[in-house]
Structure formats: structure tokens, C-alpha cells
Amino acid sequence: MAFKVLMIGHLLGDFYFQSNRVAIEKTRHIKSMVLHGLLYFTAIFLALLFVVNPDSYIKVLLGGVAVSAVHCLIDWIKVNIEKRIKNIEKYGAGIFLADQLLHIICLYLFVYLCGITAGISSWMNRIDCTEVKLNASWIIAVLICWKPASIFVTIIFKSIPNIVSQSELPESNLIRECKNEECPYRKIEEESAKVGSWIGILEREIILALGILNQFSAIGFVLAAKSMARFKQLENKAFAEKYLVGTLLSTLISFLCIGLTKCW
To answer: Is there a single domain that holds both residue 76 and residue 171?
Structure first.
């Protein structure tokens, strides 16, 4: 149970407490990396306060500091590796997964070596532990399907050749010819990307909810509704292929999270 709660803290600290600005600045300035470490420590420490015995707070505090320091070290190594790789888009997905795997291993070692368990005097003793474990799994699944999955899908898209913009669509030609950042066509492209990201998030969360409720037959309607919104664009083969990759990847992530809630 402690590891599940720690995972919630990890997801909050590594993705939700970290703004896009901090994520970019930490690759350039050590101050931003330290700020990320402090926010990460705050997330995991506050999460563990709900499940550990008050007598273990000092141990959790010291262990949390160590885990946060190791977390920043892993991020620093990742930043330096990315700077040395020329074709970073090609290996971005692998680096992202390896980075998260190392973080999760560190969290598991923290729980195992420090012997973190639900304490007798904690609030866990006052409610149904089984129900809390199930709810924790749902929270983890929801958090994964939101921002982490959105970032991963974006990384995958960057590794795919940008064949859509190289197509013969007149809109694409106008965007390529427009060098000014204030260009209306470029703004339209950016807004479209944001809308597409939100569609992907809602798609994953709805599929997750339907899967948890065992309403798998209704998932087809979600995918059909998404396809209707892009019906005209799907006539372009390049766009259709990239669209299919995003849809299948989002669906796969949702099903993996459904399995997480049912098996863990």
C-alpha cells in the first residue's frame, strides 16, 4: 500500500507539480533542477504522511530527501545524455521509459530498505484498507492517462517523420512559408495541436472509466466519435497513418491502466 501511495506522489511531483517552464529551465539552470527536487520531495512526503505511523516521520523525511536527491541526479544524467545525442527524437521514447523505470525502482528500494508500511496510528487503520488500495490504483491509472501519457504520445509523434506537413495540403504550404511567429496559420496549427492533445486525454480517460466499469462494448463509440471529428482530414493518407498511431497508442495505454487497476 505504501508503494502505491508513493507512486501517486511520484506522478504528482514529476508531472503535475512540475510546470512546462520548470521542465525546460531545469535543462539549463541548476536552480530549476533544485526547485523540481523540492517540489518532488514535497509530493512524496505529503503522500506518505497519510499511510505511515507518526513514529516513522523522521525516517520518511530522511528517506524522502535521499530519494529526491537521486531523482534529480537521474534527471541530470538524462539531460546530459539528451544533449549529446544528435537525433534525440529517434531515442526519445526509450529515454523517457528508462527514466521513469529508474525512478520507480528507486521508490521501490526506498519502501523496501526503509520498511515503510501503513502504520497502526495512521488514518489507514480507521477505514477499509482493501477499498483504499483499489482507489489508489484508480488514482494512479487516472494520473498516468492524463499528463504522462500525453507527454509520451507527443514524444512518439516527434519520432515519426513529419510526413503530414510535407504533404500537398495548401494549409501546410502556407504554414511552411510563414516565418513570423505571429503568423495566423502558425497560431492555428498550435491551437489545433492543443485541441488534439485534449482529445487524446479525454479519449484515454473515458476508455479507462468504461474499462473499469466493464463496459468495453461502449469503447467503440468513443473511437468512432473521435474519427468523425477528423473525417475530412482522414482522406489524407499521411495524416490518417499518424492519426491511427496516436489512437492505437492511447487505447493501448488505457488498456494497460485498466489491467493495472484490476490486477494490482
So the answer is: no
Q: 226-255 burial, b if ≥16 CB within 10 A, otherwise e?
A: beeeeeeeeebebbeebbeebbebbbebbb
How does pLDDT run across 214-241, given as a tens digit for each residue? 998 899 888 888 787 777 777 777 778 8
Q: Are residues 10 and 111 in the same domain?
A: yes
**107, amino acid identity:** L
Buried b (16+ CB within 10 A) or exposed e, 24-41: eebeeeeebbebbbebbb
Query: Which structural domain range is residue 38 located in?
Result: 2-126
**For residue range 70-82, what is the model confidence (pLDDT) as tens digits?**
999 999 999 999 8
| pTM of structure | 0.82
Residues 260-264: contacts with CB within 8 Å, 24+ apart? 260/137, 260/140, 260/141, 260/144, 261/134, 261/137, 261/138, 261/141, 261/212, 262/212, 264/4, 264/137
The amino acid at residue 261 is T
Quick check: is 140 in a domain? no
Tell me the C-alpha to C-alpha distance, in Å, between residue 191 and each of 166, 185, 204, 207, 245.
19, 10, 20, 24, 21
In whole angstroms, give the CA distance from residue 174 to residue 193. Answer: 17
